[in-house]
Structure formats: C-alpha cells, structure tokens
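User: structure tokens for this one?
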Amino acid sequence: MNRVFPLIGLLIALSFAANAQVKESGCIIEQTTPGANDMIWENDSLKFSFVPTSYFWTVRIENKTSDKIICDWDNVLFIYDKTTSGIVFDDTIELKKNDPKGTSTIAPNTILRKDIFPIESWGEYGLSPVFLRQLIKKWGEDKISIIIPIQFGQNTQEYEFTFRVYIPEKKRK
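Assistant:
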C-alpha cells in the first residue's frame, strides 16, 4: 500500500506534464510563447512558472545565478482583452491599489512567488475576472500577455509570456 500512493502521485504529475495546460472556469489556458503549453520557461539564469486563474495569476521566479537579481513590479505589464495594465498583488487593499509596488530582490539560488492581478480589472464594484467563459464563448479565444522586467546588475531584460485562453471543443462520439 505504501507504494501505491507515490505511484498515483507520479501518474498525476506525468498527466499534468503531458497535458501542459490549465483548466479554469470552463476554459483552457496554455502558454504559447516562449515555449508551448508548459507554464514553465527557463534559461541558465532564470526559471519562470505560472499558475493562472480567472483572477490572480501566481508567478514564480527562480534566480539560478550566484548574484542577486531584481524584479521591478511597477513596470510589470499584464495585457488582456486588448488592455495594457499594471498589476496589484493578492494582499493589496483598494485604497492602495495605485501606490507604487516597488521591487523585489531575489537572492541567488532562491525562488520568489507573487500572486498578481491586472489593476485595470479592479473596478468600482470590486475585482472583475481577467477572462469570462461567456465572453470567450461569444467572441472566441483570448490572448493574455505578461511582461516582467528583471534587472541583472545595471542591465534590465524584459521577459514576455503569452497565453491562449479558449473553450475546448466537445468530443464527438
């Protein structure tokens, strides 16, 4: 019995890795650039991973270098529904939504995790979803991009990630 649970966990992990897409609110979200459908991108210096929902998107940034790096949250762009937006965090209160977000220093060989949301979706009546199944059904798939600036010493590099949100076709029998 002790071997069954690790085997089940491995099968679930493999099926997620093979699928490489997220199901949320009746829609499929898949990463289109860079790389495809894995919600993870990495090079020798960084590793980005995403867990998207219809509201907050978890962003994990792993610093694989031996130096500190900096993420400038005030210059992160969340682009959706043809709208360019800055971001807020999951712990932001409405009175401070327009305040500067600042920077995060990521120590060597560590991971930073933040839950972000486009500030433009924070309306008069609270948070609106980044995408709605009803609108995607009516208008077709949606494209969401996140641009994250990372500073290495005196140089800043922007990393852009694009995601496709769509409703899966029903299988015919």
